[in-house]
Design brief:
- It is a single chain.
- The protein contains four helices and eight strands.
- The protein is an alpha+beta fold and about 130 residues long.
- The protein has one domain.
- The strands form three sheets. The protein has a four-stranded antiparallel beta sheet with strand order 6-5-8-7, with helices on both faces. A two-stranded antiparallel ribbon has the order 1-2.
- It is globular and about 40 Å long.
- It starts with a strand and ends with a helix.
- The relative contact order is 0.18.
Length: about 130
């Protein structure tokens, strides 16, 4: 399937279709340092999201906040900065996924409940359909 690229990302109308074609779960790889968080790494997912999504929250056509938890257990919303990392971090179930480092933030982030994963998946789908 040939896609038009804009700024090294998939063309806006095709983001949702591309996410459905290659599901993020297919990108998961073992974490080589599982003692530092979880058994699976989200790094390949972040790389894929970098190809599909705007680089930052500020580039989005609609405001978005992503819920994460830092490694001390503090809940927070991320509203600015790198978007792909924040989206991946919002789905990082502790002990399953390694925490995601978010550039420009003083912490690595994880999510803390399965409800957050459901919310993050819904948010990503809504984001993909509005780009």
């Amino acid at each position: 399937m040939q896609m038009q690229m804009t700024d090294s990302r998939v063309a806006k109308p095709q983001v949702a279709a591309e996410l459905a074609r290659v599901a993020p779960i297919q990108l998961l790889r073992p974490n080589m340092q599982p003692w530092k968080g979880g058994v699976l790494s989200l790094d390949p997912v972040v790389e894929r999201l970098r190809q599909l999504l705007p680089a930052t929250f500020e580039e989005l056509p609609v405001p978005l906040a992503v819920g994460v938890v830092d490694q001390t257990g503090k809940h927070m919303l991320i509203r600015s900065g790198p978007l792909p990392e924040a989206v991946a971090a919002s789905a990082a179930i502790p002990m399953v996924f390694a925490a995601v480092d978010i550039p420009g933030k003083d912490f690595a982030a994880i999510c803390n409940t399965f409800a957050t994963v459901s919310f993050a998946s819904h948010t990503l789908f809504k984001l993909a359909t509005t780009l």
